[in-house]
Amino acid sequence: MGVVDCYRIANYREDLYNDGSLMVIDTLYTYASISNGPAGYFSAYAIKGEEEFENFNVADFYGAGGLGMRFINHDSLEFFASSGSLARAIINEGYLVLHNITVDTLLNEGFINSATITIGNYYSGAGEWFVQPSGQNIIVDTISTMIITAPGRLNVSDGDLTVYGVLDGSGCVSVQGATVNHGLITGTLDICDLSPTTTLPPIVDLNTGTITAGVMFCSNNGCFVGIGPENHAPQFHLFPNPASDRIELQGLRDATVEIRIFDLQGREWMAPLHVTESQRLIDVTQLATGCYTLRIGSGTNSMAMPLVIAR
Fold first, then answer.
1. pLDDT tens digits, one per residue of 73-116
2. Cα–chain center distance at 215
3. What does the pLDDT look like over 11-25, one tens digit per residue?
4. Is 140 in contact with 167 (CB distance < 8 Å)?
5. What local confidence, expressed as pLDDT, does residue 171 receive?
6. 3-state helix, strand, coil in the chain (%, to 5)
7. How far apart are CA 246 and CA 264, in angstroms?
8. Which residue has the higher pLDDT, 64 or 173?
């Protein structure tokens, strides 16, 4: 229940339980299971072993090592790993941060705030995957299958999505950066590239692979990109979309948001608008027929949603 601050730990026999503060400056070597309790804080430069680490509160590591640890996260778990670090499996039910780590099996039922990550084998989940900070990417490698099951969403806030293997499922995929396919995109996924370079299906930036006929493009108004786990559900909705003369922003409650509208070339249309629950109708008669990105800003948070004008 107290504080332990040490240079290195080698745990060979007994399971380790922490409900205080345990900080390891260098490496924790373990050949038994570790549990970080509901009041625990666990921090280590690296953790290496072949057993299980279960987290119920807050834990962070700067290297997962390469010996095949299995991690189960119920609260907040962060990796700032050195290049080449490998985790055998991560099961996430909480908030997970990944930087420079390859995961063999990743099951997500919570929120993942990820830097560049390669899915080593298989990903499946009906949760949400938030990819942040800006400029970070998702890569599905050649031997991998990533499945996004509705109502699950893969949200890439400002990075790129590159598929070399298989992207499958029935959920939404929203990408603020480049959407590139060299493999197979299939199922009934709804792909929404929020910075598209084409208006003709398939609406991705580069496709040298196969995108099957069941895949849709920005057909679900709930496919948006948010920033951070607090936006884990669609907070705002546009109606109607496609629109002709005006749109209504629903879900404001007591919020006041700033609205900005951009075309496919990144040009801003109209002056920024401040919208509230009592003034939630937006006149779009000055917009030409076509596809736009509507950016919603509220405090330090922002999100982007597709807007189609059809007359």
1. 888 888 776 555 666 777 777 777 766 666 666 666 555 655 44
2. 20
3. 777 889 999 999 888
4. yes
5. 77
6. 0, 55, 40
7. 20
8. 173
DSSP code for 288: P
Alpha carbons 81 and 8: distance in angstroms, whole number? 17
The label of the residue with tokens 């990144």 reads 266
Q: Which residues contact 213 (CB under 8 A, 6 or more apart)?
A: none
Q: What is the DSSP letter of 230?
A: G
Please, which residues bridge with residue 89 across strands? 70, 105
Strands 166-169 and 145-148: parallel
Encode burial over 47-70: b for 16+ CB neighbours within 10 A, e otherwise: bbbebbbbbbbbbbbbbbbebebb
- Tell me the helices (H) and strands (E) count for the chain, helix number first: 0, 33
Sheet holding 268-275, edge to edge: 268-275, 257-263, 290-298, 301-309
Return the closest-CA partner of residue 60 out of 79, 73, 74, 75. Answer: 79
Contact 96, 73 (CB under 8 A): yes
pTM score: 0.50
d(C-alpha 120, C-alpha 141), whole Å: 7
Structural domains present in the chain? 1-109 (no CATH), 235-309 (2.60.40.3080)
Q: What is the pLDDT of residues 204-259, one digit of tens each?
A: 989 999 999 999 887 765 455 443 433 433 456 778 878 889 998 877 766 678 88
